[in-house]
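idk why but the lab printer keeps eating my pages so im just putting this in chat instead. protein + heme C:
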Amino acid sequence: MVDFSRRDFIKGLAFLAVGAALNPPIEVKAAQEEVPKLPWPYVELDPEYVRKLGHLGYYAFECAGGAFWAIMVALKEKVGYPYTLLPLPSVDEVKKAVEEGEEILVMMKYGGGGAFSWASLCGALNGAGLAINMVTHNYKKVGQRLFRWYETFPFPSDISNELASKHQFLVKKYKSDKVLPKSVSHSVLCHVSVSRWCVASGYASGSKERSERCGRLTGDVAAMTVELLNADLKGKLDEAFKFALTPTTAECRTCHYKGKNYEEGQFSRGFMVCESCHKDMRPHASSIVTLGSKGEGKGDNSLVLSGAGATAAIGVVAGLWSYAKKRG
Ligand code: HEC
Ligand code: HEC
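predcted complex ->
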């Protein structure tokens, strides 16, 4: 719980201190308010408001800084302390900075363009991930749902496309106000997400349209994060998003998961869409003699596969099966 009387008292002290010494050293200021342990209090947020903040945040801080700032500043507006302890510019300050082209350094900015422009983890996911980390012990459950949702979602959303075309986001000047084409990445990687969108839309990676697409995506990711956090607050995470891997990933993970048996395939880990990268499985098929359960992973958000590569991956799994049957 927030102790307002204590806070006001401390603020009063801070005021006196500033009066006494016009430029108090940072250590003195920091000692004035206690930094509580994580998780910090989360209250229900409006996903539509946070979507708009995410889009504005992208214009100011790119994807990772934008998604993180959107969620945290919405919490700061509603909860106040302890979010007041973070270096979070206000919505008005950010609007002004965007209009004047002023650079503000915020947390998570390094995550832009898939971390230092390396195009690894999508920055919107990275920034949202830190926000999730700060507000709930269930961070892993929430984050895994967010990642899986991202792999399956056609970005940018209809809502974001509409907000932009009707000029209802919080920016004054748009990189583009077109209704942009959509694509599903089947991957959490910036590289795959951006490249697939560029190929699907015909826009170059350095185009204003691609940048705008990532701005809308940042809004969409921030909004979904808040939907999941709202659901987590009510203990209804599964109702917000039913977690299910692609059938192929579930299949591969019967042998390849974080485990101790090296010989059975436990020399890798993770939940990504395996078939988005591993397509030719012939070399290793010969060493496989058994296949595990065909169970988990056939949920309503299972991947809809398309294209020659995906067909090849499916073919490989089917091939492994018939091979295992012959051997067994
Ligand atoms: C029945 C267990 C099993 C399943 C299912 C399985 N693998 Fe493997 N996989 C292995 C084992 C065991 C090896 C090691 C083979 C070796 O080195 O001789 C291996 C090797 C590999 C390799 C190393 C390179 C190669 O081809 O030799 C890759 C990559 C791989 N698996 C990916 C996958 C993917 C992707 C899937 C799902 C489409 C999958 N595996 C399904 C057991 C399995
Ligand atoms: C983003 C692309 C990507 C995704 C997605 C991916 N992998 Fe890989 N994986 C790689 C790369 C690259 C290597 C290293 C290959 C090499 O060194 O030859 C690798 C290596 C492996 C290896 C060891 C290969 C070896 O040479 O022994 C296994 C097993 C494997 N992956 C399984 C999986 C499984 C199972 C999944 C899904 C849960 C998966 N991978 C998802 C790219 C990916």
